[in-house]
Amino acid sequence: MDLRSRILTYTADFAPEDPYTAPGESQLDQLADGVGHLLDGDAAEAERQLAPLGLGVTRLTDTDSGRRYDEIAALRPNGEAARWGRLYLTADSDLRWNVQVPHPVSDRDTEALGIRLLESTASGSLVVAGAHRDAGRSDAADVAHREDSVFHTIVVELQKRGVPGLQLHGFAESSERPYEAVVSGGSAQSTSREASALADRLEGDGLRVCRGWSARCPLEGTTNVQGRSAEHRHAPFLHVELAPDARDDGHDADETEEALGDLLQTWSND
Fold first, then answer.
1. Helix H or strand E encompassing 69
2. Can you state the percent helix, strand and coil of the chain, rounding each to 5?
3. Quick check: 62 and 109 in contact, CB under 8 A?
C-alpha cells in the first residue's frame, strides 16, 4: 500500500472543532504494555493487549520504498481510539530513531515531512497525533504539552529503550521570529553533537537558524513534555521548529529535508 496516502488520508480531515477525549490512566497503562511488546518483537502479545482498547497491529509494505512497517491504529475508523494517533514501526531492521508529529494539520505539512523522512531513511518509526491540537476541551489534544495521551505514552516507551527522537513543529514567520528554523533540545539547555551538526548544516544551506542552547530563541520547546521525559531518561531528543518555506514546497524545504535525513542517518549508524 501507499504509506504516504494512508497517513495523509487519516490526517486530512482533522479540525479544531472535532471531539476528543483522552484515554484513562488504566487504558494508557495497557497501551504502554502493548507498545512495549511490539517494540520488543512480540506482535502477538501486543495485539492481545491493544485489542480491548480498540487498537490493532497491521503489517504493511510501502509501495514506494518497499520497506515493511508495523502499524498501531484504531480498529474502527470512527471509534474513539481513531483520535488517539498512530505508530509506524520499522519491521525490517533494528529501530534506531523516531520522528514525532504532535500537531498534524495545525502545524501545516509537518505530517508530510515526517512521512518523507520515514520513507527515505531506514530503521525508523513515526508517531503521529490523532487529532487537531485544538480539538476537544482545554487543550486536551495538545499532546506536546499533555502526558495523558497515546502520543506521549508511545514516545515514552521509545525513550525507555534509548531511541533518539526528532519532534517536528511549524511556525508562522514574523518580525519576532526572523528564522527559518529553531533547533533545541527541548527542556534540556545543553547541546549535543547531533544538534550542533544539524544547525550547522541548515545554516550552510542558507537558512537562518536560532540555536536554543546558545541564544534566547522563540519556541524552544522548554515546556514540551516529551522533551522533559527524554531529559529524565537520558534519551536523545531534538525539537525543531520550521517556518513555512522550510517545511512545505518552499525554497528551503529540500535543504531542510536533506539535513534532517542526514541526522536520522547518523542515528541509524550509531
1. strand 68-74
2. 40, 20, 40
3. no
Amino acid (one-letter) located at 84: W
Which positions ≥6 away from 72 have C-beta within 8 Å?
34, 35, 38, 46, 50, 55, 56, 57, 86, 87, 89, 154
Q: Nine-digit cell at 37?
A: 511488546
Local confidence pLDDT in tens for the 270 residues of the chain: 999 999 999 999 999 999 999 999 999 999 999 999 999 999 999 999 999 999 999 999 999 889 999 999 999 988 899 999 999 999 999 999 999 999 999 999 999 999 999 999 999 999 999 999 999 999 999 999 999 999 999 999 999 999 999 999 999 877 778 899 999 988 766 678 899 999 999 999 999 999 998 888 878 888 999 999 999 999 999 999 999 999 977 779 999 999 999 999 999 998
As a whole number of angstroms, the distance between CA 27 and CA 226 comes to 19
Alpha carbon distances (Å) from 156 to 5, 92, 186, 212: 27, 22, 15, 23
Query: Cα-flanking dihedrals φ and ψ of residue 165, to 5°?
Result: -125, 140
Neighbour-count burial of 120, counting CB atoms closer than 10 A to its CB (0-12 exposed, 13-18 middle, 19+ buried):
middle
* Distance set, CA 208 to CA 211, 216, 243 (Å): 10, 14, 10
Specify whether the CB–CB gap between 198 and 183 falls below 8 A.
Answer: yes
Q: Enter the pTM of the model.
A: 0.96
Dihedral angle at the C-alpha atoms of 86, 87, 88, 93, nearest 10 degrees?
-170
Helix and strand element counts for the chain (H, E): 8, 9
